[in-house]
């Protein structure tokens, strides 16, 4: 874990981030142990920072951990020349600044002892307890992993799974990497580049997902300096040039303080400068930045409701940029982040300032992520083993959803290479979106994910029975890419959720096409496993066993099919005019209808919303009044209607639909099946009903047939 000396040209540091004095600590460490009842001088700074976050913390474990670590590492030196003990001290200080609890800090001080000294894991457990031993063991295992291109996938898989059961292990590893990146200057350039690439590809995405923004942003800047030195120096020069000029955001912030003070809202308003990578990205996205583009304004309040009160005042007193508003309080991001984001134009000059509004607690979580959540496994009086599952795996109530999914799908990965490739792909996703479920709740999936990804995220392997989706109320294919804030309703095969995916496999299952638009590892691995387990099972059918167009025999004798059409149930206002019901929209009582005179003096009756009505009106054709006959006027009550059934292809679909039609007493005059598209198929039925009043019940019966997701009346010439 050792690294070189401090980088001679470090990037511009964020304000308010004191750096530990390694030389002072090194001298203190060399002086040897201190009296048992006094805190060693070398750890005094760590203790003060820790007490600032946890005033009542017991510092004795830290004292004992430091004494053991210092004595164990005594005589070991870093490549930079400092005593090795300065490294665990610096890592511990980083975590203390983030607000880590005492157990994490104790493990951080000891995180190298088992690997680099004669101290054993059993000794750590005896002296500091199982929790500290668990964390030290996890960090030790993780350190043995080679993250580079030549990494052994199975080794990484085992290590990540082991450490993933406790996010504090990852937190210590991230702080360890940050300190090593800070002191990378004595390494050879090629080794610096290798470490920086691993940090970029694996550890920075992990920091993002754990919500530890304070670590992530500094790691990004350090990697930026090594891998893109020219862009780094250019951006650094731009920032230094900006800092020598008046800061326009300060005056905007002062104006906001005045507005909020007058409104009676207690709030802290400060300017937060962008870090170098953020500044570089903003330049790439927007071109040259304005004077107000070098930072953001942060507003901190006490309660959630105050966030919205601040938003209202700012949008009232300043000109808001509505397109920049995002509410991450109502819908938190996947890494626990909560804030209101907006942008407003200043009252003088019109400079646009980005504004972040959050509570103090939200700010702590935004900066420190899972580190700020404390120890989720701390034993209680009632149950000393709380947090320990029967199989030894920890049940972490604060574990981010993405990490739970990772630990779930890694068990289903067919091999280690698949897991490694899927992990890298998953970490490459730079943001996650929130999709609302039509029945309530939300689904968090990576940006660019499709409906099939959402199905597996929500239902796991039961998603094998998914047959379609509605996105924002409209029917959509499973290939549809979802956007942030979309509303999704997944259409499932019968019994897919109540009996499980295996029970419904005979009727539905994933198609090989699903792999083309599955983006998440969970979906791809589950689909691949299902296809491999069912090589001979027919894929979701497209009714290909039936001809594309069928003439169906009527379920019962019909005067229409017998060649003796019944008189229409409609009467036109033209005396003695023959009346015909239009085939394009097949009107039936009690539809609102209108008529148009055609050749021979006949009147064709259309539904008023039929597209043909609009065309004839545009052409100047005059409508003719039409009404439905009442009972007793010689109406036979029967009618002919054309229906479309939209469905997801499967075996026996046509047979099931015609059976449902027959059970409702309707006769099939003609039927046709269009070629399937993306597993969807459209059936067209021209039916003779004995009574128009039975049409709604018929359509409901057809809609209940498994796989059918919509039944509608024809609006264009029927395919007969």
Summed up:
The chain has 720 residues and is an alpha+beta fold. Strand 5 and strand 6 form a beta hairpin.
Topology:
Blueprint lengths: L21 H9 L13 H10 L6 H14 L12 H13 L3 H8 L3 H4 L4 H8 L1 H14 L9 H12 L2 H16 L6 H21 L3 H15 L1 H15 L4 H15 L5 E6 L2 H11 L8 E7 L2 H14 L1 E2 L5 E2 L12 E6 L6 E8 H9 L32 H12 L3 H13 L3 E6 L4 E5 L4 H9 L6 E6 L2 E3 L10 E6 L21 H4 L3 H13 L15 E2 L19 E3 L6 E3 L11 E5 L5 E5 L3 H8 L4 E2 L1 E3 L10 E10 L4 H11 L3 E7 L6 E10 L5 H9 L4 E6 L7
Parallel strand pairs: 2-6, 7-11, 14-16
Antiparallel strand pairs: 1-2, 3-5, 4-5, 5-6, 7-8, 9-10, 9-11, 12-20, 13-18, 15-16, 15-17, 19-21, 19-22, 20-21
Helix pairs in contact: 2-4, 3-5, 4-5, 4-10, 5-8, 7-8, 8-9, 8-10, 9-19, 10-11, 10-12, 11-12, 12-13, 13-15, 18-22, 20-22
Question: What would the keywords be for this entry?
Answer:
22 strands, alpha+beta, disordered N terminus, five-stranded mixed sheet, 720 residues, single chain, disordered C terminus
Please provide a written account of the structure:
With 720 residues, the chain is α+β, with helices and mostly antiparallel strands. Helices cover 40% and strands 16% of the residues. The strands form 5 sheets. Strands 1, 2, 3, 4, 5 and 6 form a 6-stranded mixed beta sheet that branches. The protein has a 5-stranded mixed beta sheet with strand order 8-7-11-9-10, covered by helices on one side. It has a 5-stranded antiparallel beta sheet with strand order 12-20-21-19-22, covered by helices on one side. A hairpin with a 4-residue loop joins strand 7 and strand 8. It is elongated and about 110 Å long. 42% of the residues are buried.
């Amino acid at each position: 874990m050792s690294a070189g000396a401090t980088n001679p040209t470090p990037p511009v540091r964020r304000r308010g981030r004191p750096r530990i004095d390694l030389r002072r600590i090194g001298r203190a460490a060399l002086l040897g142990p201190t009296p048992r009842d006094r805190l060693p001088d070398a750890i005094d700074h760590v203790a003060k920072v820790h007490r600032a976050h946890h005033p009542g913390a017991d510092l004795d474990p830290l004292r004992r951990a430091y004494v053991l670590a210092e004595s164990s590492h005594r005589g070991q030196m870093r490549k930079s020349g400092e005593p090795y003990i300065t490294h665990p001290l610096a890592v511990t200080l980083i975590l203390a600044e983030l607000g880590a609890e005492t157990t994490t800090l104790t493990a951080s001080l000891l995180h190298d002892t088992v690997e680099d000294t004669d101290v054993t894991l059993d000794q750590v457990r005896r002296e500091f307890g199982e929790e500290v031993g668990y964390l030290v063991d996890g960090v030790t295992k993780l350190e043995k992993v080679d993250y580079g291109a030549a990494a052994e996938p199975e080794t990484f898989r085992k290590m990540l799974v082991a450490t993933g059961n406790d996010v504090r292990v990852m937190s210590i590893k991230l702080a360890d990497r940050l300190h090593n990146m800070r002191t990378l200057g004595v390494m050879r350039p090629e080794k610096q580049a290798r470490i920086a690439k691993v940090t970029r590809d694996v550890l920075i995405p992990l920091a993002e997902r754990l919500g530890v923004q304070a670590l992530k942003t500094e790691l990004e800047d350090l990697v930026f300096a090594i891998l893109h030195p020219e862009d780094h120096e250019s951006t650094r020069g731009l920032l230094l040039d900006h800092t020598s000029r008046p800061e326009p955001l300060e005056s905007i912030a002062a104006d906001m303080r005045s507005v909020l003070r007058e409104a009676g809202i207690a709030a802290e308003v400060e300017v937060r400068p962008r870090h170098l990578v953020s500044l570089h990205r903003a330049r790439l996205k927007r071109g040259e930045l304005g004077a107000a583009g070098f930072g953001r304004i942060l507003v901190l309040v006490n309660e959630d409701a105050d966030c919205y009160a601040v938003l209202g005042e700012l949008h009232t007193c300043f000109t808001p940029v509505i397109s920049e508003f995002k509410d991450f309080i109502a819908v938190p991001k996947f890494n626990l982040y909560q804030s209101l984001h907006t942008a407003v134009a200043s009252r003088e000059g019109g400079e646009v300032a980005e504004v972040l509004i959050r509570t103090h607690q939200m700010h702590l979580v935004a900066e420190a992520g899972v580190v700020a959540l404390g120890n989720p496994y701390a034993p209680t009086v009632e149950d000393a083993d709380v947090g320990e599952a029967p199989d030894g795996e920890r049940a972490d109530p604060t574990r981010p959803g993405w990490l739970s999914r990772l630990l779930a799908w890694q068990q289903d990965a067919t091999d280690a290479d698949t897991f490694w490739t899927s992990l890298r792909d998953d970490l490459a996703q730079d943001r996650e979106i929130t999709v609302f479920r039509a029945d309530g709740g939300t689904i968090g999936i990576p940006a660019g994910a499709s409906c099939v990804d959402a199905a597996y995220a929500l239902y796991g392997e039961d998603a094998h029975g998914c047959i379609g989706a509605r996105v924002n109320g409209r029917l959509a294919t499973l290939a549809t890419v979802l956007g942030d804030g979309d509303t999704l309703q997944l259409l499932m095969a019968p019994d897919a959720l109540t009996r499980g995916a295996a029970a419904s496999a005979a009727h539905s299952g994933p198609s090989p096409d699903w792999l083309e638009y599955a983006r998440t590892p969970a979906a791809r691995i589950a689909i691949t496993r299902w296809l491999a387990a069912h090589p001979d099972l027919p894929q979701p059918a497209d009714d290909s066993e039936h001809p594309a167009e069928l003439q169906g025999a009527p379920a019962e004798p019909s005067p229409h099919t017998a060649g003796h059409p019944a008189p229409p149930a409609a009467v036109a206002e033209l005396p003695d005019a023959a009346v015909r019901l239009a085939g394009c929209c097949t009107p039936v009582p009690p539809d609102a209808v209108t008529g148009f005179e055609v050749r021979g003096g006949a009147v064709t009756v259309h539904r008023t919303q039929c597209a043909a009505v609009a065309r004839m009106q545009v052409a100047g054709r005059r409508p003719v009044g039409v009404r439905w006959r009442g009972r007793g006027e010689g109406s036979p009550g029967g009618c002919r209607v054309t229906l479309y059934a939209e469905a997801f292809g499967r075996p026996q679909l046509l047979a099931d639909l015609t059976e449902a039609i027959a059970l409702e007493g309707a006769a099939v005059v003609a039927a046709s099946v269009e070629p399937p598209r993306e597993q969807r198929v459209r059936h067209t039925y021209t039916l003779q009903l004995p009574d128009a009043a039975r049409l709604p019940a018929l359509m409901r019966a057809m809609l209940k047939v498994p796989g059918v997701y919509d039944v509608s009346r024809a609006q264009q010439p029927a395919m007969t």
